[in-house]
Design goal:
single chain; about 100 residues; alpha+beta; 3 helices
Length: about 100
């Protein structure tokens, strides 16, 4: 699966993205739970746990209480980090193929 969170988003005939929702990311025994620190951002956490900041959207989708439109995370907030990323990408691919 690609890194692009818009990979499965449908497009109209002018190639504009249409509204799409990612499937929920289920909890797994391998997930990690952390408390955010001062200065944490979704992209920096993705880089820390997945070695790629482009997976910030996985952490965002797994933590619905973060709100949208910001990368910043208040310190002391408990976060679920879906882990390992390969498992999550496989689940998303399977969900898309079953549509």
């Amino acid at each position: 699966m690609g890194l692009n969170r818009y990979q499965f988003t449908k497009r109209d005939n002018q190639s504009r993205l249409l509204t799409s929702r990612l499937p929920q990311i289920p909890e797994q025994d391998s997930d990690r739970f952390i408390f955010s620190r001062e200065g944490d951002r979704l992209d920096s956490l993705a880089n820390e746990f997945y070695d790629d900041p482009r997976f910030w959207w996985v952490i965002s989708e797994a933590n619905s209480g973060l709100g949208h439109g910001t990368f910043s995370i208040p310190p002391g907030q408990q976060l679920r980090i879906p882990f390992p990323i390969d498992n999550i990408l496989d689940l998303l691919q399977e969900a898309e193929e079953s549509k």
